[in-house]
Amino acid sequence: MKKNPFDQNVQTLPQKTRSTRRLQDRMTIVLFLLPAIVLFSIFLVYPIFQSVYYSLFSWKGFGPVVDFIGLNNFKRILTDWIFIKAVGNGLLIVVLSLTIQLPLSLALALMVGRNLRGRAFFRTIFFVPYVLSEVITGIMWLILYNPDSKRGFINALLTLIPGLKAQPWLGDTRTVLLAIFVVLTWKYFGFHMLLYMAGLQNIPPEIEEAALIDGVSKRQMITYITIPLIGSTIRTSVYLSVLGSLQVFALVWIMTKGGPVNASEVMSTYMYRFSFVRFQLGYGSAVAIVMLLISLVFSLAYLRLVRQADYLS
Amino acid sequence: MSVNYSYRSRTLKKNLPRLFQYFVLSLVVLIVIVPIVMIVFGALKTRGEFMTRPYTPPIPPNWENYAKVLSMPIFWSMLRNSLLIMLATTIGVVLICSLTAFVFSRMKFRGQNLLFNFFTLGLMFPITIAILPVYLIVRQIGLTNNLWGVILVQTSFQLSICIAILRSFFKSVPYELQDAAYIDGCNTFGFFWRILLPLSRPALGAVASITMVTSWNDLLVPLVLIDKEKLWNLPLGTMQFQGQYGMDLALIAAFVTLSAVPAVIFYLFAERQIISGLTAGALKG
Question: Are B174 and B142 contained in the same domain?
C-alpha cells in the first residue's frame, strides 16, 4: 500500500445527503444479489417447477409434451419394486453409515486427539481418499474386488486364511451392497473424522483438566464430557452423512451400474437409468420430484428436531 | 489426555494405551494407502505381469503404460477441459458468493431472511438429485455439449454452501472497521473491495479450494451434458476409457493414476484451505 487511498474522498462526504446514500445502498444490494439470484432461478428453481409439470406426462424427451397422464407416473414409481428396493438400499446405506462409519470416524478422531505426535500426518493420509474422485475410487476398487484371487487383492488376502474361498464381492446379490459400503467408508471416513477433529479442537482444555483433577476415568471423560461437548458437530456430521447417502451415484454406477439384478440400485442410479438410458423423461422427472421431496422432508425434519441450524449458522 | 498428565509416570502401563493408539492408526493408514499403492504399482507392469502377479512390487518398473497414456491427445484435452471448467467455476463462485455474502452479512433490507433461506435451498437439493431437471433446462438454453453449460451448472450448485461460509466469516469482521471506513469517506463498495475482501483472504481461499475439488472431481454434470469426446473432463474420460480398454488393466491403472496426480498435488499444497473450507461449511463459525 503506497498511500491511504481514502484521503481524497474525505471532502465529498458532507455533500451527500441521506437519501443518496440510501439509494446507493439499495443499488448495491440489487446489483450484488443479481448474479446469484439469476443463476439460482435459472438452474435450480425454474427446473424444479418445470419437472413438476413434466412429471404429469408421458414424454420421451423429444417432440411436444402432450401425453397427459396425471399422477400415473407417481403411482408407477411407488409400485415399482425396483424403486422400493432402491429406497431400501439407500436406507441401509444410511443405517450402516450412522452405526459403523460415523462411530469409526469418531473413535479415530478421539484417538488422534489433540496432541498426539504425528497428528498432522494421520490427518493428511486419512483425508487423501476424499480428494480422489469417485471415478478413480470406483475403478481402483473394481480392480481390488476382482473375483479371481489371482487378480483381486482382497480375495488374495482372503484365500491366505485357510478355509476361506474367493468371493465375487460385486457379483453376488448378497454381498454387493456391503462391498460398496466398504468403499464408501474408505472414501468418506476421513471427512467425518476431520469434522470431529475440528470439533474437539474447540473444546477448551481447561474443562478436561478440571475433570482430570476431579478424578474421572478416561471412559467417563469421553462419554460424559467430550462427546456432549461436540454434540453439534456430531449432529452436523449425521445430517451430511444422510444427505450424502442420498446422493451416492458415481461409485455405484462405475462399480455395478446398480446390479446384479438391481441388488445395488439406489435412487440416483434408478433415476439416471430411466432418464438418460431409457429416455423416459416424464417418468424420470417424477422420480426426481420424489427424491427432492424425500430430501426436503428430511432436511426440514432435521432443522425442526435439532432446532439450531448448526449447518447454516 | 493432557501432556502434563502423561509425563507424571512413564510406566509401561501408562504407555500401553498410546502404543495401542499408534497400532490402530497405523493399521488404518495401511488400509488407506494399500489400494492406492496397488494401482500405482499395477500401472508399472506390463499387461501380462498385471495378470500373473498383480500385487508384487513392479521390479523392474515398466514405464510404457504411463508413456502411452501421456502420448494420447485425448488425455491432454481432458486435462485442459478439467482445468478450464475448474478455473471458470472457481472464479465465478468466489466472485458471486462474495457479493451475495456481503449483502447478507453487512446490509439490511426487508425480506433479507426470506431471501437467505431461499439461497440455502441448494443445500437441500444437491445436484445428484436435481440432475434431470437441470439437464432439461440446459438443453432448452442450448448449452449441451458446451463447457459453459457445465461451468454454469457447477457454479449454481456450489453457491449455497459458499455463500453460507463467506457470510459467517464476513460477520466476524468487526463493525468498527466499517464505521471507521465510512467516516473516512469510503462508500459501501469501497469498504467491500478495499477492506473486507483483503481481510477475508483465508475464507476466500477456503471457498475457492473446496470449489476446485468439487469441480475437478465432478462426473455427473459432464456425463449428462457432454457427448463430444473432445469436451470430456478427466472423470468422464477416465470412466469412458475404463469401459473401452476394460481388459488392459495395467493401462487403466496408469490412466487412473495420472488423472489422480493433479488432485493429489493440489491437495498437498492446499490441504489447509480445503480443510478449513470443509469444516467452516459444516461447523458453526
Answer: yes
